[in-house]
Structures
1.
Amino acid sequence: METGPEDAEPGTLDPQSDPQSDPQSDPQSDPQSDPQSDPPQLGLRERKKQRTRIAIHEAAMTLFAERGYDHVTMAEIARAADVAPATVFTHYASKEDLVYELRHVANERLRVALRTRASEVGVLAAVKEWQQDMYEYYVQSPKQIDRSRTFSRLIRENPTLWSRSVGFMFERQNLLTELLVEQHPQADPFLLEVAAAQIAGAVQAAQVRYQGDLAAGMAKDEVLARATARSEQVYEQLARGLAEVL
């Protein structure tokens, strides 16, 4: 399953836009910024829908943190967000979608990172920089750290959520395959697909360790330092293995 700009959540990057011109492209740009904050170009109606979506998501994550994923219903989320149950389902088809609200942010940023990389920047270097940026993005403010810790605990405690996270690895693999084939038209498509699988698997493995550190309550600086050290190991190994392909 692949995602495109039409599937992106509110607040994600437009792959045709300049990532440097978007305040969300810099995790350090605003310590209080939210990945779902209102884009200024939206009209009044769209901004209202955006605020409703944010309220629903924040209510859900608060309830999940307090009571656990399995002990919260969509109706209870609606009450906590002060909206009708039908409104919740307008924005989110399931509780799983509420938990994985930010997956499109990550995938769209990956798409932008690979499509806008300078000619002298290799694929692996671009993916490595993207992953490091996402690590920082998830802990850019105290509110975001709390949200990321809750997310990390939820997926580690719930088999259904864990299974879906593995599914997202294949979603990212498909995205990487699409981008690699697009950028390396002379290469063997099958070998590019294999390369995409290796990169997606490595990203997932590093992400699981990062989430484990968050779930364990490690301080932000320690979480980032450990993630950076792992990135060096991961991408050095990938570079050796993919030297003849990328």
2.
Amino acid sequence: MVRKKPTRAVILLPGTIHFEAVIASFSDWFQDAIVIAVDKGIDKAEKIAPLRCNSDVAVDYWVGDFDSSHHLEIAPTLYREKVRYPAEKDEIDTELALSLAREQGIDRFLLLGGIGGRLDHQTALLFLPVQYPATTFIHTDGVEKLHFLEAGRHYHFLLPLGTTVSLMALTDLAGINLSGVKWPLSNYALKLGSGLTYSNEVVEEQGIEVSIEKGDAWLYLLPADSKRSL
């Protein structure tokens, strides 16, 4: 049987990943997606290896300038190909990983381990959807989750009561509709930089529904039992 060409990719970044939470929500990704480790993100390879039942390696591509991973001892059997880039370049390593995947027709990405760390790199990751239109992004460490919302699409998320919900605008937004939360919105327009859509809360057992007519935004989700705060 010919294996279908992958349409999605898991990107392993150097930050913290809560693997039990990731497996609970996204284990199916490791069955049919390609996996790309970005520089020191390769240190997660051994943990994800058991999840990749349909592959003989944990990581398909290990990419970067390797400035943060040169000291690591990584077994060659954990990855299929190592792609080195110069330290002085125009792109961050994550952009290079995305470009490599997109050349293979990948348009759906799960970013793991990019929450926390240097603020400049975190900001660059948050604005990736603006740079790569018509691409689906989920950005998470397993606990905090960010889902990129495509304009013109309707989304339904089945979430526990009390889940924190924030709509994080990357551009001016128009036609925001949000229901199932403590402070719903209907055909609302939001200027970039406004905090009005932050720290909402799920109040309906059937979850939430959200859509935006125009603009780019992340939907941020945090479980009610999380200890994280401002």
3.
Amino acid sequence: MASFQLLLSAGDIELNPGPDSDSSSQQKNKQQRTSRSFSRICTECQKTVRKNQKRFVCDVCKDFIHASCLGVAYTNNLNSSQPQCWTCHKCVLSKLPFYGHDILEIISVNSLTSDNDNDTHLNILSKHVQHLKIMHINTRSMVSTFDHLCLMIERYAFDIITMSETWLKENNLLLQHVTIPGYVHAFNNRDKIRGGGVGIYIKESIKFKRRQDLKKRYPTMEHLWIEISGRNRYSKLLLGTIYRSDAILPYTTWLEYFNDLLSDLSVQWDGMLAVTGD
């Protein structure tokens, strides 16, 4: 026992003898294996993404996800030998001006008259003057909340305001009442059933066209789309606002239509896509 301790202290033998190796190299290889293993885990189902599976890889953070977990409807056309490029929702959100902040709530009339220096939302907007500022609001009757909406727009000067539950009808006098100076509006109103309806206000300085073809393709859904032109695919925008109501479509049927709509847009539209609503 004494000789064993002497040899050990001299460094001639080890408790677990084996082939010599560089410990730093082993640690590096272990980290690389761990990194490769982690990057091949589907961020949705947490299962391994194999080479023979149809898959997507985020072009920003390099995370993987199964095509089936992403809910892509046209998986038969995908090549399983190579991952498809895509941007995950986390990376998309991280580029938005309000990422990490509380969502803008509907502010009371009293708070609209507060000092500018103490208005957190106004301070956030003032830091992103070059960004396109879009707000969505559930108005629950444009007629009853119109004055409040005008005060909010006057203070925050959003470029585009999308709305659901406008509760409007195809009445010229009524539509004139909800006109806001400096903005162009577009509405999709219900004909017979009370409530519902969607609408958009767009600043007059923004050139756009209404995409009636998308409404005609899915006529039973309550939705409205506009296309804002740009210099390239990174500056043109297709913006839609949608309202779901059981009075129009059952939940499962609506989800099927919505999935089909997004699948069509992902194939046919090569610019930025934004969807608002509730």
